[in-house]
Amino acid sequence: LGSRPKPGVGRDRRVVLLAGGVGGAKLADGLQQFLAPGNLTVVVNTGDDFERHGLLVSPDHDTVMYTLAGIANRVQGWGVEGDTFANSEMLGKLGEETWFRLGDRDLAVHIVRTRQLQEGRRPTEVSGDLQRSLGVRSTILPMSDQPVRTRIRTDEGWLAFQEYFVRRRQEPVVREVCFDGIEVATASPEVLAAFEAADAVVIGPSNPIVSIGPILAIAGIRSAIGAARKRGAPVAAVSGIVGGRALRGPADRMLSSLGHEVTALGVARLYADLVDLFVIDRADSALEPAIEGLGVATKTTETVINDGAARRRLAAVILEALD
Ligand code: FO1
């Protein structure tokens, strides 16, 4: 029963989800099925944004947008289902770097985004038009309208995020992470308004360092979450570490090389001052007492969401726990 949206129950609640790439997008997809159009707002990380062939690519934003539009490549998680790479092939012939693969349909989004930004529109406005064009019924908000770029320090020196994540396949050991531009980046008015209107806030199972980290580092966002909580809007976080491993991506090795414990408890410590509830997988139920020792309530359920039904079940458990 939990996996079928119950019509009416809590559909009118306004939920704000903090999300990075694929894991956050999957939970957004689950939550969207229980909430009335416009009642889910996804604040996305833009620190992974990347300039390619003169175009601006916003991977975490586009992964959430394609997922909520129902057109995401479900195996890869990023890019458009069934996309072709004719343009990428020709770019290669013309001597362009193509290790960061842009599909032909994906490319259209970057062309439109870049043109509108060059005309002086804010990333938030551009994002709104793109998601409406693709029929997304929730609201996706870039964490800031100012540019932030995650950089990774390795033994070979500093790398731009996508150089680390894609070109180097996350092989180098991460010694330090920094968010260029974070000092002057502010939460957009739309992001602040979303937190003010929120009945609940959820931190998705994305990488706590490089996906959720940049969002929480934006001036105004931690305090906006704190204000929502003080106002009575419960705040939950979902662990992206299960059984000491990341479900995908480099979060486990990154947490380790940055000196954090690579467990759901280690992630809970990063969020303890922000959240009322921490959602962990059944595999980590033994950690409940230690997490509750941080002053955080726990909810143990299935957090590995590889199909639509699992996404809905996790969303239902979270919405029920936040009720
Ligand atoms: N990830 C890869 O591993 N290889 C790619 O060629 C690649 C291209 C790509 C293009 C558009 C996009 O939105 C995402 C893309 N990603 C690719 C994923 C991306 O690097 C990650 O989704 C995020 O940056 C981390 O969450």
Which characteristics define this entry?
323 residues; alpha/beta; seven-stranded parallel beta sheet; three-stranded antiparallel beta sheet; globular; binds ligand FO1
Task: Describe the protein.
The chain is α/β, with parallel strands linked by helices. About 40% of the residues lie in helices and about 20% in strands. It contains 13 helices and 14 strands. The protein has helices spanning about 20-30, 60-70, 85-95, 105-120, 125-135, 160-165, 190-195, 210-215, 220-230, 250-255, 265-270, 290, 310-320, and strands at about 15-20, 40-45, 50, 55, 140, 150-155, 155-160, 175-180, 200-205, 235-240, 240, 245, 275-280, 295-300. The chain has a seven-stranded parallel sheet with strand order 5-2-1-9-10-13-14, sandwiched between helices. Strands 7-6-8 form a three-stranded antiparallel sheet. A two-stranded antiparallel sheet has the order 3-4. Strand 6 and strand 7 (about 155-160) form a beta hairpin. Helix 1 runs parallel beside helix 2. It is globular, with a radius of gyration of 19 Å. The mean pLDDT is about 95. The protein binds ligand FO1.
